[in-house]
Design goal:
Structural class: alpha+beta
Number of strands: 9
Helix content: 40-55%
CATH superfamily of the largest domain: Butyryl-CoA Dehydrogenase, subunit A, domain 3
Order of helices and strands: HHHHHHEEEEEEEHEEHHHH
Radius of gyration: 21 Å
Shape: globular
Length: 371
């Protein structure tokens, strides 16, 4: 495997890193997340107009650059390093992949809007009765003339309060299908219970009673595409987590150099040096695991699933270890709002459960590798 980035990918990473360091402050982003709309629309438009990252991995026919999984990894890692709350993974990676595979005029029109920074799309797939088992959707879709109407409920829908469109999974007579709901004029029958998550993101629980929707792709044929979308989302979140951990480790090392105890910096204490070395090793293992997942996203379904589950389990374990030890090495102030480390710790905790928990990916890997 070749782990070397191309010149174009290096430029993409460096340009995004420079933009975020100069224009994405932690204080302003937390203010928007806690007291404002939950995100910064101007930043999102800049991602499209100035950086082009929203279309970097989308097809050229919809205004994208035709990139692939490596471009997504590069972008997600830098977004994680800056603790960006804007919904790149959910809109561009997960919804973008589903729309590309569904095809059709409605999907292409929405992809063009995503590339231009005009749309935020959220996938509503999780239900209280089935949890992570997206295939066991109790939500149903009933044909209504040329369209469809949805009945059911979804929980923990990421970014739904700020979304312009929803992709909703529902059962039809032919099997699991995918539907598009336009939120420009909130449709009758849709009730949204919005809330802020522990890591300063926005989510909502949805109730759908006769909500009009558009079928995407073939009826009853959505499961394969959803499985791939889940793996793509897991790989992107794993890359984001690597960026978070790099920042957390660097801040922790710097703090231990500056913090004085008994007349010397605590970074000189051998026990704490060993702890930071262990953190470094967890981060490096995660980097390798993410590369393995990213380079196997276009492989056959079984190979892709093995690689993604290995990466998600590895990164989930590392996120827990690095986050907890960073807080401990900072002492009680590590959990305060004033220090960035506390915000990163919350994100490192949340990512362990996105697109499948650490334990669920360990179980899936065991099943896929059983003789």
């Amino acid at each position: 495997m070749d782990f070397t980035l191309t010149d174009e990918q290096d430029l993409l990473r460096d340009g995004l890193a420079k933009f975020l360091s100069s224009r994405y402050g932690l204080e302003s982003s937390r203010a928007a997340a806690k007291l404002g709309p939950g995100w910064q629309p101007a930043i999102w438009r800049a991602f499209a107009d100035e950086l082009g990252i929203l279309g970097a991995a989308l097809p050229e026919r919809v205004g994208g650059s035709g990139g692939g999984p490596v471009e997504v990894m590069v972008i997600a890692e830098e977004l994680g390093r800056a603790l960006v709350v804007e919904p790149y993974v959910d809109t561009v990676v997960v919804a973008g992949g589903l729309l590309q595979r569904a095809g059709g005029d409605d999907a292409d029109a929405l992809l063009e809007r995503i590339a231009r920074g005009e749309a935020i799309v959220s996938l509503a797939a999780t239900e209280a009765s089935s949890g992570d088992r997206w295939q066991d959707a109790a939500t149903t879709a009933v044909a209504d003339g040329p369209g469809w109407v949805l009945h059911g409920a979804k929980i923990a829908v990421p970014d739904a309060p700020v979304a312009t469109h929803l992709l909703v999974t529902a059962g039809t007579p032919s099997g699991l299908s995918l539907f598009l709901v336009d939120l420009a004029d909130p449709p009758a029958g849709l009730t949204m219970h919005a809330y802020r998550t522990i890591d300063d993101r926005r989510a909502a629980d949805l109730e759908l009673v006769g909500v009009p929707a558009i079928l995407l792709g073939a009826e009853g044929q959505a499961w394969d595409s959803l499985t791939r979308a889940r793996d793509e989302g897991a790989a992107a979140v794993a890359a984001e987590t690597v960026g978070c951990m790099h920042k957390v480790l660097a801040d922790t090392v710097e703090y231990c150099k500056q913090r004085q105890q008994f007349g010397t910096s605590i970074g000189s204490f051998q026990a704490l040096q060993h702890r930071m070395v262990d953190m470094h090793m967890e981060v490096e293992q995660s980097v390798a695991a993410v590369y393995l997942a990213v380079l196997n996203l276009d492989a056959d379904a079984a190979q892709r699933a093995r690689a993604v589950s290995a990466a998600k389990a590895t990164v989930g374990r590392a996120a827990r270890f690095v986050g907890q030890n960073a807080v401990q090495l900072h002492g009680g102030m590590g959990m305060t709002e004033e220090l960035a480390i506390g915000h990163y710790f919350k994100r490192l905790t949340a990512v362990q459960y996105e697109f499948g928990s650490t334990d669920s990916h360990i179980m899936r890997y065991a099943e896929l590798t059983r003789p």
